[in-house]
Amino acid sequence: MAGVLEVRNLTISYSGREEVIKDFNLDIAAGEAVALLGPSGCGKTTLALALLRLLPGNARLLSGSIRLGERDMLRVAAGTLRQIRGAEASIILQEPALSLNPVMSAGDQIAEVARAHIPGSPRNWRRHAELALAEVGLGDSRFYSAYPHQLSSGQRQRIAIAQALVCKPQFLIADEPTSALDNKTQAEILELFKELRRSRRIALLFITHNPAILAGLVDRLWRMGGNWQAKTAKPLPC
Length: 238
Ligand SMILES: Nc1ncnc2c1ncn2[C@@H]1O[C@H](COP(=O)(O)OP(=O)(O)OP(=O)(O)O)[C@@H](O)[C@H]1O
Ligand SMILES: [Mg+2]
Known about the structure:
The chain is α/β, with parallel strands linked by helices. The protein has eight helices and ten strands. Residues 44-45, 175-176 line the site of magnesium ion.
């Protein structure tokens, strides 16, 4: 299978301090689902943000390479990065409230993502958003017009997933997408991820500190070390 992601010897630090990620390597094949496990603070979110070049200004990518499909992510221009994000690869964050706009309806903010990447008309983008909402189990039209504060946390996470998927990326990064949810909602969202994996064959990097939730979801586990010896990151059988 062709590689979707190839990370080599990635080293990152914040504000000139000690590296939080050092010599990190990871490969993900097309359609493959990999779980990234590791304790709090070991650099999981840092890695997820780095993959799409979303690190904050005080982060320094000291060495290494990130290849996403055919692209060298450390060399692409800003305009190309905007095209890649959402269309070729998407990220879902732990707390959907952070990624949703509170003053825009759920459907409109999904349609906005479609507008950024898919040629067409407002009607066309709305249709893409409606289909994405239906795919995450929110097909009822009231969800299209709902504002984030009118939705439950599980529904908000579904909106964020629809937003990430609307342009049919080949690779999805999910950074602890269920850890802010109660147990029942977490189980429902995990089931949705499994369904999406079956229906879309999308490559997935699923970040968590809780291996108990991964059964049936991923093909492979990849562990980031405890007090961050990620050099020692090893694939584990799932
Ligand atoms: N913007 C930042 N500025 C400075 N240091 C940061 C910044 N973001 C993260 N860090 C530090 O980098 C280290 C790794 O953080 P990161 O958020 O990547 O860990 P994590 O594995 O995602 O943790 P968690 O499981 O709690 O989400 C931590 O020591 C953290 O304090
Ligand atoms: Mg994190």
